[in-house]
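FORM 7B - TANDEM STRUCTURE REPORT

SECTION 1: FIRST PROTEIN
SEQUENCE AND TOKENS:
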Amino acid sequence: MTDKTVFARILDGELPCHRVYESAHVLALLDIFPLSFGHTLVIPKQRVPFLHELDDDHAAALGVALPKVARAVLAATGATAYNVLQNNGAEAHQAVFHVHFHIIPSVDGKGLGLGWRPGSLSHERATELLTAVRAHL
């Protein structure tokens, strides 16, 4: 038997959650280990680990749900700033292997701490990358 993720167990009714929003393809719920007040998770009901594996219906539903839930979280918490975080793969800090987005409001000095180490991109490397990416679209 394959181990189910915590999100699969929630979707199957095996674990409770604080449901914020639900549609045919998406569930939003409060994070039980929040970085700030109002930290909310938005998950597709399709059970895939990585964003690029989602079908178009679930991806489109996430596109509708994310701004809707973000507006509601901002209004409910009074926050005026927030982060949306989504990780793919262990090397990218993904801990639960079911696609999920974090909406993390910046409230009372709490929220997502983020270090940013920008690099550079030459025109030549950008051109090579564009050619390769476009070949796969």
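SECTION 2: SECOND PROTEIN
SEQUENCE AND TOKENS:
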Amino acid sequence: MAGTYSQIYIQYVFAVKGRQNLLLKPWREEVFKYISGIITENGQKSIIVNGYKDHVHVFVGLRPPMNISDLIRDIKNNSSKFINEQRFIPGKFSWQEGYGVFSYGHSQIDHVYKYISNQEEHHRVKSFKEEYIEFLRKFEVEFDEKYLFEWVENEGNI
């Protein structure tokens, strides 16, 4: 029987519920490592997981048996459970509904990796909202801004 060989490169982008600045620096890295473990446990290739106070970028090598929406469901469900069990924040942590997902070719891996690894510096000059809308436009994804994430301007949060 012939084998199937492939590698599909996908970037997920998703936000904290209400876009609150809850992903705090002291434990943010631990959450990103946990998310990477979820990806590996699902038999996928974790390339990089990084983000900022209110959102996360996940870059994976996805194999065909894995459904795009199943992987992000597992990432969001298990990581929010982890954050709550660790009591990183007072109250209940949740991810916002929805996500962006974008595909890349093999030749773009280094560029995407560098972009994701540089999130903190990147967001000194550009908001997550600006970044996300830029992705949607770059990938020619039709959208209505009123149905995007809850854009709460909350620079004063935690």
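SECTION 3: OBSERVATIONS ON SECOND PROTEIN
Residues 8-147 form a domain with the Alpha-Beta Plaits fold (CATH 3.30.70.1290).
Confidence is low (pLDDT under 50) at residues 154-158.

SECTION 4: SIGNATURE
Preparer initials: ____
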